[in-house]
């Protein structure tokens, strides 16, 4: 059996390339763990990792470990930075172990077959005097997958579908180069029990991707593993696999400290949750659109009706189509049942896609509900003092913040009065009965992801309102913030710009799962409007009486 050393670049005190809070070391580890998992599950090989967590490992320790065990191949996984875009690979520019150039060619080309589908630039096969390729005695290869400081490359590194695809390509290329035997279907993928740490399990891939993004920002590498549960598919977020249960428990405690309350350990194989290959799934597509906004409207409609869904993309003939996926199943009968439910609900363009055929390509607009028409961008209607009056009718000690919502709402073109309703919902009428405390001035729960995580803090109430409006602007617009305005939202750059144009489009984004998040905000806004209207009517009656008295 051949021994392969997988080396996730950097780690611990060495973050590698850093850009807008994203650290190369986290991407490296996430991809490397994915490659390890895929090789272990599909091929006969002994996989040794130079690190499996965020620890500091010197270059000499990495190469010495590989040399000590007389490994057959050393694979170092990195991402690039500082002026460029795309993928390249490196071998040593001096004397090489046999087959090194052949290995590079096979692995590089296999990776690029997948990367090219994402329009990744091929920067070529190169040679250089790099420490890990120079000091290892066996054939070695260093991959520079993408540039963390290039917007398009960074978007792919944040895309778990791309990470899974590119990791699989690395693994398949390595297996092909080294001619690894495939495991038989009856073979166990691991020789001993592994304790896998799961940081959540979700029916929606989008929610799983949000969790991996949050973990990445907290220095925890993770990847998504689809699992079959009672015929349906759940997307589990795995943050590690350990041979010792004590190490797995330590990882769980680390996750709980950053607010991941739903973490758990999966020992060996759970009979109720069997891993599945996404290529083997029957996906239920509830519409395919040329315009992303139409796909988003369809997702909003389905979510409100109790059908969790998310958007995937597919390139056909140079055109991008936005597909709304409402489920994925191992059994065709389960997929057919969901299609029938969707059609009964009115989604007549629902269909099943197995990945081997091309789906229909309609571009009809999605139906709208009245709630879906309320955009985040727009003008406020209710005055600041009226906002304060409404909330104090419920909680007399509520702070007077209405004027800030009007001022910053007007500055960004955001409906500040509805943003105020959002704050009412998040803070329970400014009583702060959840994880966020009053002195944090965090009126929208920014960064409060549950499990006791309190989220961001702001120096003044005004700054807290500004941060909320700015965060809404990130969702509602792809334009830069107004000139001369300070960036105060700590999570502004984590938002997919322009991904939620309406309040209901925040469902599952601002709050997870939050299937009715936007609807709840709008229902509070409706009560605010009714209260304000009644207050105005009472004031009008009082003024009319006053005028009558003055004229007598």
UniProtKB/TrEMBL annotation:
Domain (SPOR) ranges: 189-268, 276-355
PANTHER family: N-ACETYLMURAMOYL-L-ALANINE AMIDASE, N-ACETYLMURAMOYL-L-ALANINE AMIDASE AMIC
Gene3D superfamilies for the chain: Sporulation related repeat, Zn-dependent exopeptidases
Name of the featured protein: N-acetylmuramoyl-L-alanine amidase
Top-level lineage group: Bacteria
Keyword Hydrolase: yes
Alphabetical UniProt keywords: Hydrolase
Pfam families per the UniProt record, alphabetical: Amidase_3, Glucosaminidase, SPOR
């Amino acid at each position: 059996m051949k021994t392969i050393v997988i080396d996730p670049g950097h780690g611990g005190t060495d973050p590698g390339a850093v850009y807008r809070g994203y650290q190369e070391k986290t991407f490296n580890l996430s991809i490397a763990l994915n490659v390890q998992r895929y090789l272990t599950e599909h091929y006969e090989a002994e996989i040794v990792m130079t690190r499996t967590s965020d620890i500091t490992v010197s270059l000499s320790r990495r190469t010495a470990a590989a040399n000590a065990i007389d490994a057959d191949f050393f694979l170092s996984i990195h991402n690039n930075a500082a002026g460029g875009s795309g993928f390249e690979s490196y071998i040593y520019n001096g004397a090489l172990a046999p087959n090194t150039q052949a290995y590079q060619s096979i692995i590089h080309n296999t990776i690029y077959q997948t990367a090219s589908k994402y329009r990744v630039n091929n920067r070529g096969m190169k040679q250089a005097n790099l420490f890990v390729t120079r000091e290892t005695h066996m054939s070695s290869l260093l991959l520079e997958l993408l540039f963390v400081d290039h917007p398009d490359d960074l978007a792919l590194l944040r895309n778990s579908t791309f990470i899974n695809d590119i990791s699989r390509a690395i693994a398949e290329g390595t297996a092909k180069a080294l001619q690894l035997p495939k495991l038989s279907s009856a073979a166990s993928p691991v020789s001993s029990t592994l304790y896998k740490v799961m940081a959540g399990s979700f029916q929606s891939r989008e929610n799983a991707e949000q969790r991996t993004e949050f973990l990445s920002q907290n220095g925890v590498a993770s990847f998504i593993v689809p699992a079959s549960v009672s015929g349906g598919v759940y997307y589990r977020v795995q943050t590690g696999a350990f041979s010792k249960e004590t190490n797995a428990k330590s990882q769980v405690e680390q996750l709980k400290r950053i607010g991941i309350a739903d973490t758990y350990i999966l020992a060996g194989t759970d009979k109720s949750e069997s891993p599945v290959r996404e290529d083997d799934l029957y996906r239920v597509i509830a519409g395919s659109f040329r315009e992303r906004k139409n796909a988003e409207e369809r997702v909003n409609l389905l979510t409100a009706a109790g059908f969790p869904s998310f958007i995937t993309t597919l390139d056909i003939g140079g055109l991008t189509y936005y597909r709304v996926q409402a489920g994925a199943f191992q059994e065709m009968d389960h997929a057919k049942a969901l299609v029938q439910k969707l059609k009964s609900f009115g989604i007549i363009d629902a269909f099943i896609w197995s990945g081997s055929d091309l789906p229909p390509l309609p571009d009809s607009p999605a139906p709208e509900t009245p709630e879906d028409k309320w955009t985040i961008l727009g003008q406020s209607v209710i005055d600041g003092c009226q906002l304060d009056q409404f909330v104090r009718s419920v909680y007399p000690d509520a702070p007077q913040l209405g004027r800030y919502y009007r001022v910053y709402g007007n500055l960004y073109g955001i409906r500040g009065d509805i943003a105020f309703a959002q704050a009412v919902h998040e803070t329970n009428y400014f009583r702060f009965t959840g994880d966020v405390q009053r002195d944090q001035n965090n009126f929208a729960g920014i960064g409060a992801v549950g499990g006791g995580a309190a989220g961001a803090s702001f120096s003044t109430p005004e700054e807290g309102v500004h941060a909320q409006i700015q965060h809404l602007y990130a969702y509602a617009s792809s334009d830069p913030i107004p000139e001369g305005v300070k960036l105060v939202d700590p999570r502004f750059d984590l938002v997919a710009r322009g991904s939620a144009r309406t309040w209901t489009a925040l469902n599952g984004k601002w709050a997870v799962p939050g299937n009715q998040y936007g609807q709840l905000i709008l229902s509070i806004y409706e009560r605010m409007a009714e209260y304000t209207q009644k207050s105005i009517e009472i004031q009008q009656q009082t003024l009319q009486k006053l005028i009558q008295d003055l004229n007598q």
